[in-house]
Amino acid sequence: MADLPPPVQGPTAKEKKYDRQLRLWGATGQMALEDSHMLLINSGPGVVGIETLKNLVLPGMGNFTIQDSAIVSEADLGVNFFLEEEYIGGFRAEHTCNLLKELNPDVQGNFITEPIDSWLTQPDSLKPFTLILAIAPIRPELLARLSAHANATLIPLFYVHCVGFYSHFSVHLPSAYPIVDTHPDSETTADIRMLKPWPELLQFAKEKTSNMDTMEADDHGHIPYIAILLHHLEEWKKGHDGKVPQTYQEKTEFKTTISKAARTNNPEGGEENYDEAVAAALKSLKEPEPSSSVKEIFKVPECVLVNKESPSFWVIAHAIGLFYTKYGVLPVPGAVPDMKARSADYIQLQNVYKSKARKDVMEVLESVRFLERTTGRETVIEEKDVEQFCKNAAHIKLVRGRPFHVVQAGETIKWGERAKSIAQNLTFPDTLIPLYIAFLAFDEFVATHDKDRLSGAPKMPGETRQETDTEKVTGIAFKITDDLIKEAGTFIEEPDYTAVKERIGEFVQELVRAGGAELHNIASLTGGIVSQEIIKAITEQYIPVDNTCLFDGVKSKTEVIRI
Amino acid sequence: MANANISSVPIGSEGPRARWKYLDNILGRSGPFTDPDWVPGETVIESLERAKLLVIGAGGLGCEILKNLALSGFKDIHVIDMDTIDVSNLNRQFLFRHADVGKYKAEVAAKFVEKRVKGVKITPYCGKIQDKDEEYYKQFAMIVCGLDSIEARRWINATLVGMVDENDEDSLKPLIDGGTEGFKGQARVILPTMTSCIECQLDMHAPRAAVPLCTLASIPRQPQHCIEWAHIIAWDEERKDITLDTDDPEHITWLFQKALKRAQEFNIEGVTYSMTQGVVKNIIPAIASTNAIVAASCCNEAFKIATSTNPFLGVPDTENYMMYTGDEGVYTYTFQHLRQPDCPVCGDDSRARPLQVNPNSTLQEFLDGLAERPEAQLKKPSIRSEEKSLYYQSPASLEEQTRPNLSKKLNELLENGEEVVISDPAFPTQFKYQLTFKE
C-alpha cells in the first residue's frame, strides 16, 4: 500500500472554531451555509426571527438581511436580547443586525428599514436571497407574493408564528426536493448482502472457514462472523434444494445451528464471533430490498424522463434505477461493520466490499455518462457525487414541497387532497391540528383588523380586548373547522364534535391571552427548531419537516403535519 | 430594590413595567389551563422577581439559559462553571467573543447578560459544584442544569435528593436538566424524592461500549482502535512522565502521528487529526440551534414553575421528560419517566439490586464492568462485602492492602448471594448489589 501523505499541520483557525458542527454537516455543508443569503421579514415583537438568525450567524451563514420598519421601544428590551437601551427610538432592523454581526466576524449582515409594502413591490427586491423567513403578522397579499416568488424561483420560504406559549411554522420547499445525505442512524445502514453474495465474497468465506473443525482455538475464535454466516448458509442450502431458510421456523433453526457450532470448551464458555453471527443471523436472511419510498423515487416523472436540464440528482437516480432493474438490488454501499476478527482478515474483508462497491459505482457512472451524452447535458456530473449517491442509495429521500395556506380575508380556506386525512385526525385527543386552526383564525383576524389607519400595522387579537377578541377568533376557528369537515365530505359525530370544538376553543383562548406577545423562551425554542430546518434546507442534508410544525409550550410537545 | 413598589404600578402601563409589556400579558391574565384559584398580577410578578435561581454550566446550554431566565423576568441568578473559554466554543456560546478566549465562562457570561438585560443580577462562581455544600444550595428556589457531564448531574441530583426534609417544604428544590447531542436533545424536570430522578433515568444515557483492550493491543481494525491504542497504551509506554493534556495541540499531534503510524502498519485507513481529537476528548457534536431548543424548553418549565402561568412538566404523575429529535423531520416524545423503587439515590427501598455475575471472573473484571453498566457507570469504585473490605481506591495504604484481591475470582472472595456495597468518590450515594453466581 502506498504511503499515506505526511501528517498535516493541525486544523486551521476556521476548522477549530467550527469543529463541533463540521462533525455534523462536514465541509460541503459548511460551504453551502457560507454561500447562502437569508432574508428575514420581521414583524410583531420580532424576537423569533432574531433568535433564528442568532443560530445561523454563529455557525457562519454567509449573508443575512433583516427587513423591519419597526422602531425600537422599551417593550422590545424586555423580550429581545439583541437590543440595548440606547437604541430606543432607532430602527430595530439596524440595531438587531449590528448586534447579531458581533457574534461572528465572518458573517455579512444588512438591514432594510423601508416598510414592507413598498419595499416588496420594487422589482427584483427579492433577487439576492437564497432563502426567506417571514414572521407573522404579515398582510396576506404580501405573504401571497412571497409564496409566488418561492414557487417561481424554487427558494425555500418559511412562515413563522410565535404567540404566547404557542408557535407554528410552515415551509414551502421546491416541489421536487431530493436529499442524498440524509444521515441515517448508523445502526440501520449496515448492508452485508448475505443473500446476494458475489464470487469474491464467497471465496473469502470459503478461505476463512475451510478447516474450521481442526482450527486452533484462537483461530476459530477470530473467524469474521460474515464468513461464519456464509459458510452455514452454504451448508444449509446443500440440505434444502439450494434454498436459504424461508419460514420463520427455518430461520430460527438456522440461527440455532450457528449457535451450536460455537466452541464452548474454553474459559469464556463461548466465542464472541459466534455471538455476533447469531445476533446478525435473522437480519441477514432478509432480502436486501430497497424501501418502498426509494423504489418510488425511481418511478417519478423527474427520474424517468431525464433531460438536458435535469438536476444531477435525477440523472444519477435514473442510472441507479437502471442498476436496480438489472440486478434487483442497489449498489453495494461498501461499509463493513466492525466485528471480532484479526486485523488482516478484517482489512481483507473490507477490501472485498470496497472493490464490489467500486465496481458498482463504475457501472452506475457508465450509465450516467451515457445519459449525459444522449440528453446533451452540458455540465459533467462529478464522479464523487455518483460515489456518494451509491453509498447512500438505500436512504435517499424525496420531499414534495408545496405552498402553505395564505389566509385571505373572507375567503374559505382550501385543504384540497389533505382535507380528508386532516379532518380524520382532528378528533385525536392529543393532536395539535386544532392549534393550527387557531393560528389560521389568528391570521384571518389580522387580515381584517388594523392597529390604526396611519401606520397600517396589523393588529393582533387580544392586544387590548381579551374577551371580545377571544370570541371573534373562536368564531372564525369554528367556521374554518366546519368548512374543513365539509370539504372532506365527512361528518364528525357527537360527542367527538363537541370535544374538538372545546379543544379549539382552549387553544384560541390561550393564544388570545398573549395579545400578540412573544415569550422569550418560546421564541428562542422556536428559533432553534426553525434554524435547524433552515440548516437542513441550505445544506441539503438530513430530512426536513414536511411541511408544518406546531409547538405547544404548555404541554411541551411538537407535532408535524402535512398541509 | 428597584422593584420594591411594584404593587403601586398598574400592569402594562408606562413606567417600570413598560419593558415587560409582553410578559405581563401572560403574568396578568388567566388562561384556560391556569388553576382556577390562581390570581394573575402583582403577586405573580413578585414571586417571579423574588425567586433566586442557580444555573449550573455556562457553556452552550448555560449561555442560552442565562439569557432566557433574564428575559423571563427573573432578577437574581447565580451561575457555576469551572471552565475557561476555548475557541471551539465560539460557534454556539454566543456570550463569548474571540477576545474572551482563556477567561472564565461564568464571569464573562454573567457580565454580558447583566449588561444586556438591565435590572438582573447574575452572580458567577468559577469553580466546581462539589466545592459548595447544602447550605449553599438551600438558598435557591430552583436549579437549572446545562451540563455535558453525567458525573456532575448525578452529584447535584444526589445532593438535592439528600437535602429533602419532609417537614420543610422549602427543602425541595426542583431540578431542571437539559442535554444535547447534534440535532437531538432532552429537557426534564425532577422534583427530588417526588418524581423520577437523574439516577432513576440513568439507563436513558447508556455509555458507549468500550473496545476491549486486547483489540487495541493486538488486533486493531478501525482507525479509532489505533487512536485509542496511542491514547491508552503508547502514551503510557513512551511519555509516562508527561501528563496528557487533551487541550494541548502538541499532545494531540503526538497521538495522531502514533495512531497514523500504527494504522499504516495494519493497512487501516481513515485516521485524521480531527478524528484523533474527537476520540481522545470524547467530543460530542454541538450546534447553537439544538442548545437553543433544549435551553429554552428548560427555562419555559422554570418560568411556569415560578409563576404558575401554565401547568409544567414534572407535576407528580404527569409527564416529566421531553425528548427532541431534529435530524429526521422534527419529533418530540414527551412522557412520564417513572421512579425506580430500587433507585440507589431516591428509592424508598434500600434493598440491594440483584445482579448475576460469572463466579469465575476476577474482581477487577467485575469492577471494570460496572463502568459500562447503564444504571451504575462507576469509574473509580470501591467495594466491600458484608464481611470484609474487597477493594478500596483510597487511602493509599488500604488500596495497597486490598489490591491483591483484584486478580482473585469472585467465588474466592464471596459466597453466592452475598451483598456488596459499592461507593465512588464522584457520588454521595452507595450502590448495593446482591451478587448471584451464574450457573
Overview in brief:
The complex is a heterodimer of chains A (563) and B (439). With 563 residues, chain A is α/β, with parallel strands linked by helices. In chain A, 49% of the residues lie in helices and 9% in strands.
Taking the sheet with the most strands of chain A, its summary is: 8 strands, mixed
Order of helices and strands of chain B: HHEHEHEHEHEEHHHHHEEEHEEHHEE
Number of helices of chain A: 22
CATH superfamily grouping of the largest domain in chain B: NAD(P)-binding Rossmann-like Domain
- Low-pLDDT sequence parts of chain A: 1-5
Question: What is the average per-residue confidence, as pLDDT of chain A, rounded to a whole number?
Answer: 95
- The percentage of residues in β strands of chain B lies in 15-25%
Sheet with the most strands of chain B?
A: 8 strands, mixed
Shape of chain A: elongated
- Characterize the overall form of chain B: globular
- Strand ordering within the main sheet of chain A: 3-2-1-4-5-6-9-10
- Roughly how much helix do the residues of chain A carry, as a percent range? 40-55%
- In the predicted model, the low-confidence regions of chain B spanning at least 5 consecutive residues are 1-13
Pfam family, one (chain B): ThiF
Enzyme class (chain B): ligase
InterPro entries (chain B): E2-binding, ThiF/MoeB/HesA, ThiF_NAD_FAD-bd, Ub_act_enz_dom_a_sf, Uba3_N, Ubiquitin-activating_enz
Domain E2 binding (chain B): 355-438
Task: Indicate the topology.
The complex is a heterodimer of chains A (563) and B (439).
Chain A: H1 13-17, H2 19-34, E1 37-41, H3 48-57, E2 63-67, H4 74-77, H5 92-101, E3 108-112, H6 116-121, E4 131-135, H7 140-153, E5 157-163, E6 166-172, E7 177-179, H8 199-209, H9 217-220, H10 225-239, H11 248-261, H12 272-284, H13 292-299, H14 301-304, H15 312-327, H16 343-375, H17 383-392, E8 397-399, H18 419-425, H19 433-448, H20 466-487, H21 496-513, H22 520-539, E9 548-552, E10 557-561
Parallel strand pairs in A: 1-2, 1-4, 2-3, 4-5
Antiparallel strand pairs in A: 5-6, 6-9, 7-8, 9-10
Chain B: H1 21-27, H2 42-50, E1 52-56, H3 60-70, E2 76-80, H4 105-116, E3 121-125, H5 134-138, E4 142-146, H6 150-163, E5 175-181, E6 184-190, H7 213-218, H8 223-238, H9 249-265, H10 273-280, H11 288-307, E7 321-325, E8 331-335, E9 353-357, H12 363-372, E10 382-385, E11 389-391, H13 396-402, H14 410-413, E12 418-423, E13 430-437
Parallel strand pairs in B: 1-2, 1-4, 2-3, 4-5, 9-13
Antiparallel strand pairs in B: 5-6, 6-7, 7-8, 10-11, 10-12, 12-13
Helix pairs in contact in B: 3-4, 3-11, 8-9, 8-10, 9-10
